[in-house]
Specification:
The protein is mostly beta strands. It has one domain. A hairpin with a 5-residue loop joins strand 1 and strand 2.
Length: 165
Amino acid sequence: MKKYFWFFLIVSFSANAINPIQLFTVQRSKNKNEVRYELRVDDNCKPLGKEPVHGYWQELEKVKAFKLEIEGLDILAYGISYQKVNGDMVKFKVKAIKDREYSAKLFKKENTCYAEATTKINGKDAILKKVYIFSVEKFLKVKVKYIDLIGVLPDGSAIQERMNF
């Protein structure tokens, strides 16, 4: 019986992590560790489940880099507050920037599944590549000074927007 339980658990876990496609990263001035957002898709290049956008920590400061779930107080900043799947597109919001909506768009090229996160950057539709957060710490308090949204326009030119706090 135990053998079947472990088999079911492994199959269930792997089914929930089928084909993740990285959308964008969040880098911080604090350290080299990143939050990476990905879109989980099935074998047919369709969003997997009702909440396919997933964020996780990528530890880069350790000798052996590894992934960690976003949990605790980090969920308040890096968690996903809203997701809505509509065909090959997922609209979502990140908790730290409540008024900004993102769209994850899926497309296929030569039997390979790709995805892009799009949002408004400086009022223009753009593909989001990276978010950079500059903050300062005093004692146990963290103060975000600014957030940069970095992306590319449909014509391939770079675009950036700074949000000061």
